[in-house]
């Protein structure tokens, strides 16, 4: 499985011959200025919630690639109203099997609205079970005991967790989250993009090491095999 980082909370995953894209926010992210958004392949676009720093480029990429948007009901309604009708609505707790694997939509503790203030449904995360790997993409969230429910059901190989604090959990809570998730490999997201969420990379990685966990902080544009 290949994982490519596009900055902030945006990742592309190649698995089972399909391209999955999560929370595209590229054009408005100065740190991602070297990413050519017109070259991004997507068969599916996962949207965790309605905030701009997660959906800003979703419709442009979805329109060009005809990717299917996977999100909570209200986000798919919004995409449909914008003219993109190739969507798969879900809601918290539900699962669906796609051609790349099975997705369970799980709870996130955050807020969610569109830029105009309209309701975007509940924020969510996704657990994805492909033939290669099982992973959790949390979206923006606080630490929550509900993460223990994820490890009741899924044996995660790795997880994407926010670590930037202020708007989401920080490194300390992400380590607790990784314990709740019974997951030893975390890929960090939602840090450095804005002044509120800049972090010390070495300190974050060392914190995880001391807890016996691995934190990967990818370079924007970097691809890793996992
Ligand atoms: Ni948010
Ligand atoms: Mn965010």
Outline:
This protein has 226 residues and is α/β, with parallel strands linked by helices. 21% of the residues lie in helices and 28% in strands.
Q: How many distinct domains?
A: 1
* Sheet with most strands: strand arrangement: 6-5-4-3-2-1-14
Low-confidence stretches: none
Number of strands: 14
Measured on Cα atoms, how large is the radius of gyration? 16 Å
Query: What is the N-to-C order of secondary-structure elements (H for helix, E for strand)?
Result: EEEEHHEHEEEEEHEHEHEE
| Overall spatial form | globular
Describe this structure in words.
This protein has 226 residues and is of the alpha/beta class. The chain has one domain: Metallo-beta-lactamase, Chain A. Helices cover 21% and strands 28% of the residues. It has six helices and 14 strands. The strands form two sheets. A seven-stranded mixed beta sheet has the order 6-5-4-3-2-1-14, covered by helices on one side. The termini are close together. The mean pLDDT is 98. It binds nickel (II) ion and manganese (II) ion. Manganese (II) ion binds next to helix 1.
């Amino acid at each position: 499985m290949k994982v490519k980082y596009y900055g902030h909370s945006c990742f592309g995953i190649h698995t089972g011959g399909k391209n999955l894209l999560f929370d595209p926010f590229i054009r408005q992210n100065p740190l991602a200025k070297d990413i050519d958004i017109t070259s991004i392949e997507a068969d599916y676009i996962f949207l965790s919630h309605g905030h701009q720093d997660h959906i800003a480029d979703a419709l442009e990429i979805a329109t060009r690639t005809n990717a299917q948007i996977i999100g909570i009901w209200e986000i798919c309604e919004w995409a449909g109203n914008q003219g993109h009708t190739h969507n798969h609505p879900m809601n918290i707790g539900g699962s669906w099997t796609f051609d790349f694997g099975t997705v369970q939509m799980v709870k996130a503790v955050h807020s969610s609205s569109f830029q105009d203030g309209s309701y975007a449904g509940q924020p969510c995360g996704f657990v994805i079970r492909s033939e290669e790997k099982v992973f959790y993409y949390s979206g923006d969230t606080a630490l929550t005991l509900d993460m223990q429910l994820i490890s009741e059901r899924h044996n995660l190989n790795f997880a994407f967790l926010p670590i930037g604090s202020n708007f989401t959990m920080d490194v300390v809570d992400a380590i607790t989250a990784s314990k709740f998730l019974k997951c030893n490999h975390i890929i960090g997201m939602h840090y450095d993009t804005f002044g509120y969420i800049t972090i010390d990379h070495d300190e974050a990685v060392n914190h995880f090491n001391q807890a016996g966990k691995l934190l990967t902080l990818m370079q924007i544009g970097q691809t890793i095999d996992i």
